[in-house]
Design goal:
20% of the residues lie in helices and 22% in strands. It is of the alpha+beta class and 114 residues long. A hairpin with a 7-residue loop joins strand 2 and strand 3. The mean pLDDT is 96.
Amino acid sequence: MSKTIFERIRDREIPASIVFEDEDVIAFRDIDPQAPIHILLTPKRVIPRINEALSSDKELLGTLLLKAAEIARNQGLAENGYRLVINNGPDGGETVPHLHCHILGGRTMKWPPG
């Protein structure tokens, strides 16, 4: 199976504006932002989608959410708020089969989202 675009970013095969990285996750700016701040945070280990996550992934999933909050704070989003989005499957808006969290902020979000 070929690598997803997120694996290629992780492996530095294609450029990205990386805002955070550690041994577990990598975060970079979305190339088609839907808000003034739109960052994608993805685990380095591939989990195709949240629906395929296993109980053995719970520590990594917790890390993903805690890092999303940390990145949002570092981007100045904590005071006014932000949105975290995880899409699952085509009807959920998933376009890359590699679990990722959208961190969206810098404007008022509407509800319902879409």
